[in-house]
Amino acid sequence: MTGMKIEKISGKGVYVAGNDIDTDRIIPARFLKCVTFDELGPALFYDERFDTDDNSKHHVLDKSEHRGAQVLISDANFGCGSSREHAPQAIQKFGFKAVIAESFAEIFHGNCTTLGIPCVMMEKADRELIAEIIASDADTDMIVDIEGLKVICGNHVFNVKMKDSAREAFLAASYDPLDTLLVARSAVEETAKRLGYA
Amino acid sequence: MGKNLYQKVWDDHVVGQLESGQYQLFIALHLIHEVTSPQAFGMLKDKGLGVAYPKRTFATVDHIIPTTDQSRPLGDDMAEKMIQVLSDATQEAGIEFFAPRSGSQGIVHVVGPELGLTQPGMTICCGDSHTSTHGAFGCIALGIGTSQVRDVLASQTLAMDPLKVRRIRVEGTLSTGVTAKDVTLHIIRMLGVNGGVGYAYEYAGSAIENMSMEERMTVCNMSIEGGARCGYINPDQTTFDFLKGKERTPQGAEFDSAVERWKSYASDADASYDDEVVIQAAEIKPTVTWGITPAQSISIEELTPDPEAVEGLDKDLINDALSYMKFSANEPIKGTKIDVAFIGSCTNGRLSDFEAVAKLIEGKHVAANVKAIAVPGSEKVDVAARALGLHKTFEAAGFEWRLPGCSMCLAMNPDKLVGDEICASSSNRNFVGRQGSPTGRTLLMSPMMVAAAAIEGQVADAREVFGLE
């Protein structure tokens, strides 16, 4: 076991609207010049949040009422583009513990899962309602229930979807697969030999 | 019922099923570079693990390397450090590193194929989404994140869910002036940027079969831009001819027996697919993006879309894109003034890309207001191009001939747009800020169309500029 079971995430939510938000927007390429992921949090959505002189553009993530939000909400095809793990690393290091969207790009989804960030799919009308609730009270508690496939926001309960294998991995604390992959060393060796790779 | 290539390669490389329901997949070839991989070595150290199969991993440097002066130490301290960390880590692990000036450095997706490391029937991965390029040889080639790079280094395997397979048949003959780049942009336009989620794309049909290996790589390269996790083309005689005599392919009788094995991976005639799309080659025209996703493209003859003509999500997407691009609806893309022209990248930075353009630009000159750069995809491409005198043709036409690297595709090196400059680009992404300026604008197109735009100083129809019929 590499991590802890992830069954429920609770905290405030923040809605970053937009479809096809790509990983270059989530973290611009110049911040990829690093040899560890430790310092990436502040770079999240940098060019959306700051102008070229580093002055705040008063992006929703920088509004004081959303400080400390743990659930990031966005729209369709979130995380498309590059395979850079810097994107989910920046999301995690900024403080988010789950992402809700209409849909996710595949590599991004896989990277999030490995890092223990559940990617949850929710219908547009439901996301819009959550956005309204948050807009009227940013402190509204949200609960992302991985086991029950539900999101609770204020007095509302929403059904959500998750990729089965990811959901099971969170519940079994096996979302970081490395330890599991190392178990089958001899079977790996046999496969390598059979294919002429060893 | 027969099997398609994806199923055959998958079945061959599966080690077993994991408790999560995912499968453990053996990775035949692992490629790494300086941006997404050095961190993985740190993760391994933290866990006290070593590299399981160092001979199955190869490293090079491409994203951060400057294309003007590559003398060491590099002017950018962090860029230098990234190369150094990769160099040290690979040396310690016994991984071969194609360093700058080794004669084999280049964009990782140019290097693998040109050395013959990329071979049919392999599972290939790299911490880079354009790993799909290698699918041109009949491979399952996957872009992965850094934690997965760590997994592959530690175990030579990945935890994966199987993909569905969509066959995309491009049938018939491409018109003059229509290239592999136009084919891939057209496919993405038809199926959308997330149309491929959950799928591997099998590109087939006579137009694909008639392509050279370098053209096939261009098509597979942009699979990820259509949301597909990977894309591939069945190996055939064109594939085997390309691989024959390459540095890292088997030689002599061993090559012949390898070919027999490679052939067996091709999709069976009665293979089944989860989906099929047929596109008529004759319908594809020289294509240019007008927006901020690779699916937001039109043919050179069309007008920018009208958001009022559509409803819902599409309307928002079109409005956002036009606003960022500072374009109006219902305007021809042809005639759009450009500031920069870029030919290069893992999509279109191979020898045949430069050869095709050199033939066209001979005796012509880049417009006065345009900065034009040609960046070979690897040291080998550079050497081969120079041997043919192509660099002289480009320079005489007003292009700068640069040193190999990713260059202006992604703004991790000094080649960047400034302000809201417009770049006619042979690369693969036109995302907001992709080319290094938060307000920079990218128009994706074929190398031939980039050359036409460079010469005219505005987006132009290469068929007219170069008198192609």
What is the fold's blueprint, element by element?
The complex is a heterodimer of chains A (198) and B (469).
Chain A: E1 8-11, E2 13-15, H1 23-26, H2 46-49, E3 71-73, H3 86-94, E4 98-101, H4 106-115, E5 119-121, H5 124-136, E6 142-145, E7 150-153, E8 156-159, H6 164-171, H7 178-183, H8 185-194
Parallel strand pairs in A: 2-3, 3-4, 4-5
Antiparallel strand pairs in A: 1-6, 6-7, 7-8
Chain B: H1 5-13, E1 14-17, E2 23-26, E3 29-32, H2 38-46, E4 57-60, H3 77-93, E5 96-98, H4 108-115, E6 123-126, E7 140-143, H5 146-155, E8 157-160, E9 164-171, H6 180-191, E10 199-204, H7 206-209, H8 213-221, E11 230-232, H9 237-243, H10 252-263, E12 275-280, E13 287-289, E14 297-299, H11 312-325, E15 340-343, H12 345-348, H13 351-361, E16 371-374, H14 379-387, H15 390-396, E17 399-401, E18 422-425, E19 441-444, H16 447-456, H17 462-465
Parallel strand pairs in B: 3-4, 3-6, 4-5, 6-7, 9-10, 9-12, 10-11, 15-16, 15-18, 16-17, 18-19
Antiparallel strand pairs in B: 1-2, 2-8, 13-14
Helix pairs in contact in B: 2-5, 6-8, 13-16
Would you kindly provide a written description of the structure presented here, covering whatever features stand out?
The complex is a heterodimer of chains A (198) and B (469). In chain A, helix 3 crosses helix 4. Chain A has one domain: Aconitase, domain 4 (Alpha-Beta Barrel). Chain A has helices at 23-26, 46-49, 86-94, 106-115, 124-136, 164-171, 178-183, 185-194, and strands spanning 8-11, 13-15, 71-73, 98-101, 119-121, 142-145, 150-153, 156-159. By secondary structure, chain A is of the alpha/beta class. In chain A, the strands form two sheets. In chain A, strands 1-6-7-8 form a four-stranded antiparallel β-sheet, with helices on one face. In chain A, helix 4 (106-115) links the parallel strand 4 and strand 5 (119-121). The model of chain A has no long low-confidence stretch (mean pLDDT 95). Chain B is of the alpha/beta class. Chain B folds into two domains: 5-263, Aconitase, domain 3; 287-464, Aconitase, domain 3, CATH 3.30.499.10. In chain B, helix 2 packs across helix 5 and helix 13 runs parallel beside helix 16 (447-456). The interface between A and B is large, with 58 and 73 residues.
